[in-house]
Amino acid sequence: MTINGPKDKLLITGISGLLGNNLACYFKDKYEVFGLYNSHPVTIKGIRTGSCNMLHKDAVEQSISEFDPSVIIHCASLTNVDTCETDKELADSLNVRATRYLTECAVGRDIKLIYISTDSVYDGTDGNFSEDAPTNPLNYYGLSKLEGEREIKKNKNSLILRTNIFGWNIQEKNSLGEWILSELQAGREIKCFKDVFFSSIYTLELARIIDIAIRKDLTGTYNCGASDSCSKYEFAQKIADRFNLDRTLINPISIDNFKFTANRGKQLSLDVNKLENTLDYKLPSIDQSIDAFYKDFRCGLNTYIRENSYESSKPASLIPYGTQYIDKNDIKAVVDVLRSDRLTQGPKINDFENALAEYCGAKYAVAVNSGTSALHIACLAAGVKENDEVITSPNTFVASANCAVYCGAKPIFGDIDTDTYNILPEEIDRKITAQTRAVVPVHFAGQSCDMETISSIVKMKEKEFNSRIVIIEDSCHALGSLYKDKLAGSCFYSDMVVMSFHPVKHITTGEGGIVLTNNDSLYRKLVRLRSHGITNTPGEFIYNEQALSSTADNKDPEVNPWYYEQVDLGHNYRITDIQCALGLSQFSKLRFFRERRREIVNRYNSAFRDIGSIQVPYESKECDSNFHLYVLLFDFKKIGTDRASFMHELKNAGIQTQVHYIPVHTQPFYQMNFGTSWGDCPNAEKYYQRCLSMPLHPSMSNSDVEKVISKVRGMTEGVK
Ligand SMILES: Cc1ncc(COP(=O)(O)O)c(C=O)c1O
Does the domain spanning 8-173+201-227+270-284+303-307 belong to CATH 3.40.50.720? Predict the structure, then answer.
């Protein structure tokens, strides 16, 4: 194979990582570069970037066949050594399975594969390892990378480089070199291992070597680090000297005094003779690498790299607690509608409603412009009116109670279960009166209420009071959740189910909501109430003589072409075709959204479960939650802080958290207008003192997740 330079196409995986990004920076003038990220979108000047979940072979295949690269540099990897140890499945997925897919997709194509491996494939006892030395990883990271090497070797034209790197990150995180520099610049003392030796190489030096290796069409396995080695302590001193900083701030320590989750080798220096001889190129020493690192710093390369920004409009440094995931299909769907005849009251609304009804297993769906509107028309359709009572949970967004007030009714709050944080059925039992017109159970965070019990209580009470009590499930959090093997939205235990499509929810339409029902008459009412109370359905007209005209040939009378009637007082709560097109496109990703959230939740659970001052979410066996929210309960007193300070500290570290919820009955509006007060719902109030929702959304990258974990663990560990 011949590489022709500028015309050739280079695919880099892991483009948002340190090496991927630095390689893009180096190669972008020499090649047409396409960089793949998993879920951490980056835009880099001069190259194309795109998302690819490498755990889906189809996605890998699509990226390769679309771009048709001549070279792939596979940098994507789970590099956090301790995470690999605690989450071996994740390490296998990212370091082995993704590599296998890449190799398999390259088969039959003229592609050179370059695999970035690690010095951790050696056992770290003797050091100065040559490529012939036996591999014997001390930790799962090394093991999984070694397994990845085996995968890549199945492609004949492959090159494996075992390395250890430092450089300038695009993301708000620090490689070893950056960390040492920032601490010393801030005048802070640091501790560095005096007994861990390595041959770390500067990323842009490594890029130059890869460039030469590509041009010489090198294949095989090579060590590719600095030509010499030093301890991490000496490395820090060298940085201090080169950047003219105070080296006395650096304290030598022994790794023996540290207990890491994963074992680490002490002697990981590399013998790089084989690569030097094959390429006829002298690899840089550590001093030379640090010198290049310093010179690039003087030229502002670190700032330039960080200026390459995330695609999202939010500041790159903040991980939101919840946000939308929009891809190019969503954008295309919206643009297609903008180019069509109908922006509103067109076909997309029906399509969206049908898709949701069919998925949830309900007969009808009526889409509206928000979850709040959906709750309002559901209450109106239920006949909620002045002097009625509507029972709901205090642990919800205010809209779940406001919908009753809009209809002139009085909201009644039933306290929550201390495990699920959902309304207790016995509270509903206790609070139903002759005035109760509706019950609005809220499936908090995606976990269903005990609907079977609630539904049988309501039936009993209907008999007792000889009244009709409508159940409206507030399922705004629960699209895709299951309760007793039935999807939220099926209306199996209720009259209507309401959902929201606000951007933090599972799928979004910007703003939007829906009411699902199996009841024909409720459906007809809902359709009218969403649009001014107007109907143009013949059976619903009051004034038939005005509505209908007999045609000349004496057939059945027809509705006059201009005619409609307002038969109720409705609203303009219509959703647009633009929104529904987005909703449909989002809906096609629901499964992925759900799976990604679950992956993150599993990771969070394993990271937080053992911390004494944290309580992870309880999961009822009857439910399979979609995890709209991931709420931790903290013992802030034990941790020695308060929630506001805790949240501020997280925010300063780039992590947004949120409180779900301030109990609704304690809101001034309810206290002042309905006489509710603190003390009414003690469980919800106690829960409120301790709850904090962690970031959870499908666009979080694994490194975002690890950042949250390490910060929260750091702030709470050691608290008994
Ligand atoms: C439980 C619950 N109900 C109702 C709503 C209101 O939905 P929307 O924001 O779409 O009006 C929300 C929104 O956050 C919610 O969380």
Answer: yes
